[in-house]
Amino acid sequence: MVSGGMTCVKYLLFLFNLIFAITGIVFITVGAVILGLYKGYSNFVDNWFFAAPVLMIVVGIIVFLVSFFGCCGAVKENHCMIITFSLLLLLIFALELGAGISGYMMRDEVGTMLEGRLDVTLKQYLSSKEAKDSWDIMQHDLNCCGISGPQDWSTVFKGNDLPETCCIEFDTNNKCDINAVGMRNEGCIKKLQTAIEDNAVILGGVGIGIALVQLIGVIFACCLARSIRREYETVETTAH
User: Fold this and answer.
1) Which of 36, 145, 158, 206 is most buried, by the most CB atoms less than 10 A from its CB?
2) Is the pLDDT of residue 74 over 80?
């Protein structure tokens, strides 16, 4: 039985693991939301952009499961389970830092990546249903038109015509063109870049922030494991 101040550490560790399980749910939720956003714009982002949110989801699942070892080890005062929990927590700490840092570092690559991807898919608008759907979804959701503005569509459409998603309201001919009153005037690249960079900051902040907080859990677990080990050694010495 753990005695003295370690009893407090025991219950703090148990409480910490409940919080730990909640952080796992937070990781899964944040990763899933950002992954959903990236999938919606999959034609505009490179495949490696999906690595950080996927890693965050995987880490979240592992965190939720590992919290079981911490709770059981703290309640049962099981030295082996607490040591296992501590080692897994250190592994998770490294994964979370990796997810956080990679998520944040993606910000530097967004602008260059989007310029190339948007230019290629814009030219495929009339020939590829996939490119058309992606552009229509982006222009509608981000309330934008073209890469830098509506004029970009002049390389795709003849005359002044624009995709229907460039207009909030249509003219008297029920067409969307450069002269339409309800036209979306802002380009998409800045809005999409801002959205992706903001999500990269969220990934980085959540990953690194929670990882640092979980270091407290490692300290609690190590203190409790050492206390339990000393209790066992005291009992064995007394028995002899």
Assistant:
1) 145
2) no
3-class DSSP state for residue 183? Answer: strand
Please state, in angstroms and as integers, the Cα–Cα distance from residue 234 to each residue in 2, 6, 83, 220, 223, following that order: 11, 15, 19, 21, 16
Domain count of the fold of the chain: 2
- Whether 108 shows a pLDDT value over 70: the answer reads no
138 and 47 co-located in one domain:
no
Task: Please check whether residue 36 lies inside any domain of the structure.
Answer: yes
Token pair 């999409």 is found at: 192
CB 210 within 8 A of CB 26: yes
Which amino acid is present at 43?
N
Query: Per the domain annotation, does 114 fall within a domain?
Result: no
For residue 105, is pLDDT > 60?
yes
Dihedral angle of Cα 30, 31, 34, 35, to the nearest 10 degrees: -150
- What is d(CA 94, CA 100) in angstroms, rounded to the nearest whole number? 10
DSSP H or E run through 211? helix 188-239
pLDDT of residue 47: 74
For residue 139, the enclosing domain spans: 127-190
CA nearest neighbour of 57 among 40, 38, 77: 38
Encode burial over 98-112: b for 16+ CB neighbours within 10 A, e otherwise. bbbbbbbebbeebee
* Same domain, residue pair 95 and 132: no
Q: What is the mean pLDDT of residues 68-78?
A: 65
In Å, what is the CA distance from 119 to each residue of 47, 156, 175?
17, 11, 24
Provide the token pair at 37: 């956003």
152: its two tokens: 């970009």
Kindly state the DSSP code that residue 132 receives in the 8-state scheme.
H
